[in-house]
């Protein structure tokens, strides 16, 4: 049996930074890696464990998109948090099972399946800023330096500005594409009507049918 831990911290805080997240493996001989990811805007990093199994997976044409705001709101509003009374190993197992189930339900609620072609695109500049923001946030949580807090606020404002501009640009391009499609449809219908009129002149006027 072997205990795995990431090489960098997973919990950040003033005088409380440490590695909280571990993994246990047994009789596993294939290559693996474990890293702490500064992906979220919190004082606790998610941990990614990669097990290099020799399995071939088929290409999937769909992906998933998680709305993390909905995820957080679900946990805030739907879960009744109460102080835990842990007196035995069984209590720990029950608490962990409930915790895991709550996270899974929140993720299921906030996640939808989308085609890869329509997945949300985030500009590379914004991605880099988000990574910088997350690192700066953790530095602020650890050091409590006012200058770091000022820089964090500046990055936040810049991300919001770039994101707003990017969304407006996407919306404009979408509307332009729709307008182009409408014009093409109108032009095509106009051509069809012109051709029909040329082939059948009476189609442009009234038809009178008399039955005796």
Question: Mind explaining what this structure looks like?
Answer:
The chain is globular and about 60 Å long. Residues 201-212 have low confidence and may be disordered. Strands 1-2 form a two-stranded antiparallel sheet. A two-stranded antiparallel sheet has the order 3-4. The chain is built from four helices and six strands. The chain is an alpha+beta fold. Residues 169-212 are annotated as: Disordered. This is Endonuclease/exonuclease/phosphatase domain-containing protein.
Biggest beta sheet attributes: 2 strands, antiparallel
The end-to-end distance, rounded to whole angstroms, is 99 Å
Helix content: 40-55%
Query: In total, how many beta strands?
Result: 6
Number of domains: 3
The computed structural class is alpha+beta
- Please state roughly what percent of the residues sit in beta strands, choosing from under 5%, 5-15%, 15-25%, 25-35%, 35-45% or over 45%: 5-15%
- Rg over CA atoms: 29 Å
- Give the SSE order as H and E letters: EEEEEHHEHH
Give the averaged pLDDT, no decimals. 76
Low-confidence stretches: 201-212
Distinct helical segment count: 4
Instruction: Characterize the overall form.
Output: globular
Query: Which strand order does the major sheet show?
Result: 1-2
């Amino acid at each position: 049996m072997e205990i795995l831990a990431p090489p960098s911290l997973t919990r950040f805080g003033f005088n409380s930074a440490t590695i909280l997240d571990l993994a246990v493996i047994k009789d596993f001989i294939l290559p693996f890696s474990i890293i702490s990811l500064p992906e979220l805007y919190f004082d606790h990093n998610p941990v990614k464990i990669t097990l290099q199994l020799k399995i071939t997976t088929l290409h999937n044409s769909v992906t998933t998109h998680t709305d993390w705001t909905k995820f957080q709101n679900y946990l805030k509003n739907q879960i009744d948090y109460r102080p835990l009374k842990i007196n035995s190993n069984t209590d720990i197992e029950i608490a962990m099972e409930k915790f895991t189930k709550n996270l899974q339900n929140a993720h299921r609620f906030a996640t939808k399946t989308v085609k890869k072609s329509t997945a949300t695109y985030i500009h590379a500049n914004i991605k880099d800023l988000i990574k910088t923001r997350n690192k700066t946030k953790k530095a602020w949580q650890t050091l409590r330096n006012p200058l770091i807090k000022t820089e964090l606020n500046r990055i936040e404002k810049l991300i919001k500005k770039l994101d707003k501009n990017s969304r407006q640009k996407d919306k404009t391009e979408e509307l332009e594409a729709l307008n182009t499609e409408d014009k093409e449809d109108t032009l095509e219908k106009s051509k069809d009507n012109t051709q029909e009129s040329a082939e059948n002149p009476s189609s442009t006027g009234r038809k009178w049918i008399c039955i005796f």
